[in-house]
Amino acid sequence: METVGLFFAEEGSDLVLQELSVMLLLTIAAIVAIFVRRIRLPYTVALVLVGLFLSLFPNFLNFTVSSDLILAILVPPLLFEATLHIPWKKLQKDLLPVVLLAAVGTLVGTFLVGSIVRQFLGIPWAAAIAFGALISATDPVAVIAFFRSLGVSKRLTILVEGESLFNDGVAIVVFNLAVAAGAATSAGLGGSLNLSAAIVEFFVVAFGGLAIGLLLGYIVSYIILKNVDDHLIETATTVALAFGSFVVAEEFGLIFGLGSVHFSGILAVVAAGLMVGNIGFQSTSPTTKLTLDNFWEFLTFAVNSLVFLLIGLEVELVQMIPFLDDIVVAVLAILISRAVIVYLIGFIYGRINPKNNIPVPFRHVMYWGGLRGAISLALALTLTGENFGSDVALEIRVMTFGVVLFTLLVQGMSIERLIKSLNLSKKLPQRVENQRRQALLFAKQAGRSELNRLRENGWLFKDIYEAMDQVYDEDIASQKDTLRDHLREYPELSQEMYLQAREDVLKAERSALMEATRNGLIDEEVQAELTIELNNRLQAIDVIKENRGLGYDASRSSEEGQNDA
Amino acid sequence: MTLDAIQNPIVCATRGGEGSLAVQSAAIKRAKQEKKPLVFLFVTDPLSVSDYAEGLAEAVELELNWMGETMLRLAQRRADDEDVLSEVRVRQGEVKEEISRFLQESNATLLLLGAPRGTTANVFGDDAVERFAIHVQEKAKIPVEIIRPELA
């Protein structure tokens, strides 16, 4: 397996060919993105399917994906961007269940999956534990996309995303320990893992990574983002931080002359992203914040597109056929272990903190939404014959591909139905119906405006215009009545209409300030100051939407009646 | 109109939720029948925003007041349509306590509360909205009625 470079086309390929390959992949991703807008399929799942299809043509895009490519180049920006938008205050409220799921859950899951595959497939212990660890890293990109489109509670998003961010780091640390034990066995250095040394190593690597990320994130937030008011420099700094925190943690010994000392790069990126998102972003100007948001949104789109296309391209369906039994066992193992982790930890946490209990419908989504993706694949690709023997390494790789495919295709494609059936979507039928009635009214009013324009331009005779205008009047009046009837039945929708309108007018106020600055009516400083205030107001609208009965929220549900008049 | 001018009103606590139209209609009807002034009351709880950063917390509070004012004006227009004299009040504080305080200050004769859809009158009185009503009734010593949208 190759471990350096971006992509490897045919032997001897040059930079232009590699560049062309990346462009081709991004073009394919863009085409897929256009098509999935028309069908109800998660973008990431569609990319995997297209990747699988392309993998049937061996001479088309002949890439070899290296684990370093995924772990060091593709994963850091994805994790960094995800953490930028996690409000610490909200994460703090659910930090205990997130940590329980990410740490205890990953360890329990690793052991359970390892035990099952060891029992049924006879895989050596170290290899079974390595598989259990690598497959415990959840990748909720596809699920989070559904959360956004369905308007699911922010709390559920934070639980799922928070668990995923932290369990990646934990899974990698445990995986490395298991691989080291496997390598020691293969080299005849004694098979058993020193448990106490492993636990110490686990904590050192995990907390070391977090500390490095926090330190670098602090430096960037307080020294650069707070004091330098230049959106280009600030954006470049966040990019350097996302990759730099990973490299500094992973290569700590090399950089500081401390031999093989290393920490978790993934946890360093997560900590750095949390620091920048919650402190650095608050200190920047609105222009910089907008630039940062747009830049990271684009980078995430591009990188995610590459990751999921590459997953599809890397999986060799033909290679999987002889291992079907193993894949079935692996899939069952992850389903069982996920159920144990989510429901058991949900139950225990409910006992510890009944007021902040994780609602049962949330647990169902967290169970079925535990998809696997890039991290599992990257870790599986690092396995070679030197670790556990080539047969076992191949078996683990194929099982990983199988599980990743199963979770993405089966769970990824059914999670939307589950969310809807559990009534966790804010897009309730009455809301959709309200939008439909509003849209019809809006369309008819636009039609009448066009009619007026045609008449003013002399395109229509007066009598035809008047007749059409009369029909439009009746249509619009009738449409208003149907909308009013609906609001009478569901008065809470008036509040939503208000919030939407309020958001629009605040945005209009912000645009007016920009216009006034462009016209030289006000200074940029005045615009910046007032824009911050308006941005706060817009953020406040989001907070109100999130907290006022627009979705399921356990913290609110017991008080629902108190203030719902 | 000052608070003094609207003594002994019927108070309708509303916030634009599921039961809002039902409770507002019932309040307007009662005010008309009993020839009493009507106050639409919206209470925001500053504690509910205390977790947010300072600038955002202040913005949330201001926006909640904006929304309250708008929702109450909407209710007031309904009362105007029925020729019922009404006033609107947006107050800040812990919701139960603030409603009770307002009822006492205004010497209100009755409080009407809306219930979310799906809740029903409970013989044990342990439904959330019922517990809320009992608390306010005991504290303010004023009758409280719950209006359920399905029955309105």
Distance between the termini of chain A: 64 Å
Structural class from helices and strands of chain B?
alpha/beta
| Largest sheet data of chain B | 5 strands, parallel
Q: Sketch the topology of chain A as an H/E string, one letter per element.
A: HHHHHHHHHHHHHHHHHHHHHHHH
Into which percentage range does the β-strand content of chain A fall?
Answer: under 5%
Helix-residue proportion of chain A: over 70%
Compute the number of strand runs of chain A.
0
Oligomer: heterodimer
Strand content of chain B: 15-25%
The two chains with the largest interface, and their residue counts, are:
A-B, 30 and 46 residues
- Give unreliable regions of chain B as ranges: none
Major sheet of chain A:
none
User: How would the global form of chain B be characterised?
Assistant: globular
Mean pLDDT of chain A: 84
Radius of gyration of chain B: 15 Å
The SSE string of chain B, one letter per element, is: EHEHEHEHE
